[in-house]
Structure formats: structure tokens, C-alpha cells
Amino acid sequence: MSRSVLVTGGSRGIGLAIARELATAGDAVAVTYRSGEPPEGLFGVRCDVTSAEDVDTAFGKVEAEQGPVEVLVANAGITKDTLLAIMSEESFTSVLDTNLTGAFRVAKRAVKGMMRKRGGRIVLVSSVVGLMGSPGQTNYAASKAGMVGFARSLARELGSRNVTVNVVTPGFVDTDMTSVLSEDRQKAITATIPLGRMAQPDEVAKAVRFLASDDAAYITGAVLPVDGGLGMGH
Length: 234
What we know:
Elements: E1 4-7, H1 13-24, E2 28-33, E3 43-46, H2 52-66, E4 71-74, H3 89-99, H4 101-117, E5 120-125, H5 129-132, H6 138-158, E6 163-170, H7 176-179, H8 183-191, H9 201-211, E7 223-226
Parallel strand pairs: 1-2, 1-4, 2-3, 4-5, 5-6, 6-7
Helix pairs in contact: 1-9, 2-4, 3-6, 4-6
């Protein structure tokens, strides 16, 4: 049965792979994007998740097009990497505002409909960095670690309404963001990964598809790593 799905930050990379994976499974999938054009074959709504007004407007358009959101994937995120000693306050707060508070804004807008329907799926896309830490990424790591506490608290709030809330923590993924790294840097990264390679976006997407499926109906508050073993023990 087709469900109404919204993937934030779904115009490229991991978000686009997730959107296409869920569409292939038969769901009606909408994506948010900040610039450019929406992906071909998907319903796109322009939205900046740092704006509660934008979020509300985007949800209204999605609801009009395909009904109340039954599956929410909070994927939108940014990085502004630099060492803490020289990091500006804006670089810290803007990353948290997009990555963590953005997830709060979209989840808050989605949960009322899910609670009324007594069912729903929320998946937050975090990062192995949120569990392991990474030099130069105190802002990003804090935002991604915060997603875990947020998701687990929300899972406890919504469990009685049959709404599950889970987190996926990708490691290094072969996307536009990692393709700009030098060959030496990429080799150094893969040397730290037990499986010896970066993930493909569709490998993350398949994990999200599982958590959004009926097969995962009894899983909530979980953190599912898709990192090739990089974050073992965290």
C-alpha cells in the first residue's frame, strides 16, 4: 500500500538515494530542496529547514499532493568544518540549526498527523561522526549526536501511538561531498574502515527502507550503523 513519504534534503546524495529507494518500493515520495531543481520523477518542494514557516508551507504542499506524511526521513544537513579554536559562533550554531533543530522542526510538524492516525515512521539520518567524534567537526558531531537523544526521547513519547523513531548512522559515503577529497585522503579514510571501502548511497537507502517498513514494526529508538565497521563499539 502506497504511503506518503517526505525526505528532507532529498535532491542529491544520500537523500536522493533514499527517496528513490522508497519510491521503488511503491511509496509516494516528496523531497525538500533548497536550490536548483527538484529531482526528476519526484515531487519536490523548496524548503529551508531552518525556517519553521518554510517547513509548515512544505508540509502543506506535500499533504495536498499525496496526503498526510506517514514516513518522515530527516536527512537535510550541512557541514562547516574548522578547529574549535578558530570556529565562529555562527559556524557552530548554523550547523546545529540545520542538522538538529531542523530535524526537530520537521518531526514536530509530522507527529501530530501520525498520532491522529496512530501510526508512522520517523528515521533520522545521523553520522558515525556523532558517535566517534572527528577533529574539526565539533559542530557537526554535536548536531549528529544530538539526533540520537532526540530520537530516543521521541520514541518513548510516541510508542503508544504506534509511531517508531530510529536513527541511521552512515560512515563515509561515496557522494559529491567525499569526491572532492584528494586521492591520498580517500585512501587514508578507507584504510580505517574494516570493509576497506566507502559506502554507496543506495546501501544507506536500503537501511532506511528497512526501518520504514513493516518488517521493522517492533524496532524503535535504535541506532543502525551503515559504516563498514568504522564505528564499532560506539
